[in-house]
UniProtKB/TrEMBL annotation:
Keywords: Electron transport, FAD, Flavoprotein, Transport. Residues 7-185 form the Electron transfer flavoprotein alpha/beta-subunit N-terminal domain. SMART domains: ETF. It comes from Yersinia aleksiciae. It comes from the Bacteria. The gene is fixB. Pfam families: ETF, ETF_alpha. Belongs to the ETF alpha-subunit/FixB family. This is Electron transfer flavoprotein.
C-alpha cells in the first residue's frame, strides 16, 4: 500500500495521540505532530513522531479553533490541487471538528468527520464514515491535495510508546486569526474517567432498569466480570442516571470490546452502531422480539431482575 507524503496530527485530548499516531504511521511517510503545551512533549515524543511542534500558548483560556491560522502557516499547501498528498488527522471531538472546519476553508481541503476506516492506495484515498444517524456507512474518495479527517475513537489500536525514540522539537509562532473566539471563563464539571472505547469487557444497561438505585446490582455484576458499565442513550441523556461518557451509540461511544453484555437494552440501530463492534454480544431481555437478539451471539429471554442476581450468585460461589 502506498503512503501519503505528510501526515499532520493534532489533538485537543492528549489521550488520543497514541491512537492518532498509530494511524498516521500507517497512512503517511512523514509524521508531524503538533501539541498545545510544552509539558506534553515528554509523553508524546515516545509515540514516534518525525517532527514535533509546540504551539505557542497565548492564554490559559485559548480556544482550539484559534490555532487554524497557525497550523496553516506550518502546513505546506501543494501547488497542484489533485489527489491527496497530505493528511491532517484530528480526533472526532467537538473542538477538533470546529478546527477542521476552519482548516478546510483556509486550505480549500475536503473534510470527512467521524471516520471509521481510512485507506490509502494507488487507487486513491478513501474514508468511510457513518451516515443517516448511523443507519448506513458512506465511502468517500477524497479529491483535494490535502485531506482533513476527524477519526472516531477505537478505529486503530494505540501505538506503543518507545522511550528511546527521539525527534526534533520546534516552537511554532502563534498566528492570530482575524477574529478570535474568546473564552471568558471556564467552570469545572465532574467527568467520568472511563473510556469505554478501550474497555475489554462492557456491561450495558437500558430501559429495562426500573430505578437508578438498581445500578448497584449492575455494577456488582460488572465488578465480578472485570467489566466497565455503559448504557443506552435514555439512561444517560433522558434519566441522567449515568454520565454522558458512558452512553453507547451513534453519537456516543463505539465499542471495540471482547465482550458486550446487554441488560434490558432493546437494540435499536442507533444503539447498535455503538455496540456492534464488540467481538461477542450477549443479550438479556424479557421481550423475545427485541431487536437486540438479531445482533447477539448469545441471547437469554428473561427478566434482568431475576437473571442478574442469579449470575452474581453463581459468580460468587
Amino acid at each position: 500500500m502506498s503512503k501519503l507524503t505528510n501526515v499532520w496530527v493534532f489533538s485537543d485530548n492528549r489521550d488520543r495521540y497514541a491512537e492518532l499516531l498509530a494511524g498516521a504511521r500507517q497512512w503517511g511517510a512523514k509524521v508531524n505532530v503538533l501539541v498545545q503545551r510544552g509539558d506534553a512533549v515528554p509523553a508524546i515524543k515516545p509515540l514516534g513522531a518525525d517532527v514535533l511542534y509546540v504551539l505557542e500558548e497565548k492564554s490559559a483560556l485559548q480556544r482550539v479553533e484559534n490555532y487554524a491560522e497557525t497550523l496553516v502557516s506550518l502546513i505546506e499547501k501543494p501547488a497542484v490541487q489533485s489527489l491527496p498528498t497530505t493528511l491532517i488527522l484530528l480526533p472526532a471531538t467537538k473542538r477538533s471538528k470546529a478546527l477542521a472546519a476552519r482548516l478546510g476553508v483556509l486550505l480549500e481541503a475536503a473534510i470527512v468527520n467521524d471516520v471509521t476506516a481510512l485507506s490509502v492506495s494507488d487507487e486513491g484515498t478513501f474514508a468511510e464514515h457513518r451516515m443517516y444517524g448511523g443507519l448506513a456507512f458512506g465511502r468517500e474518495k477524497i479529491m483535494t491535495s490535502i485531506a482533513i479527517v476527524t477519526l472516531a475513537p477505537g478505529v486503530v489500536e494505540p501505538i506503543a510508546a518507545n522511550p528511546a525514540h527521539d525527534c526534533p522539537v520546534y516552537q511554532a509562532n502563534y498566528v492570530a486569526p482575524r477574529q478570535e473566539i474568546l473564552c471568558k471563563e471556564r467552570r469545572t464539571k465532574s467527568l467520568s474517567s472511563v473510556d469505554l472505547s478501550k474497555a475489554k469487557r462492557v456491561v450495558g444497561v437500558g430501559r429495562g432498569l426500573v430505578a437508578q438505585a438498581d445500578l448497584s446490582m449492575v455494577q456488582d455484576l460488572a465488578t465480578l466480570l472485570g467489566a466497565e458499565v455503559g448504557c443506552s442513550r435514555p439512561i444517560a441523556e433522558g434519566e441522567h442516571w449515568m454520565e454522558r461518557e458512558r452512553y453507547i451509540g451513534v453519537s456516543g461511544v463505539l465499542l471495540k470490546s471482547d465482550l458486550y453484555l446487554t441488560l434490558g437494552i432493546s437494540g435499536q440501530i442507533q444503539h447498535m452502531v455503538g455496540g456492534n463492534g464488540a467481538k461477542t454480544i450477549v443479550a438479556i431481555n424479557k421481550d423475545k422480539k427485541a431487536p437486540i437478539f438479531k445482533y447477539a451471539d448469545y441471547g437469554l429471554v428473561g427478566d434482568i431482575y431475576k437473571v442478574v442476581p442469579a449470575l452474581i450468585a453463581q459468580l460468587t460461589r
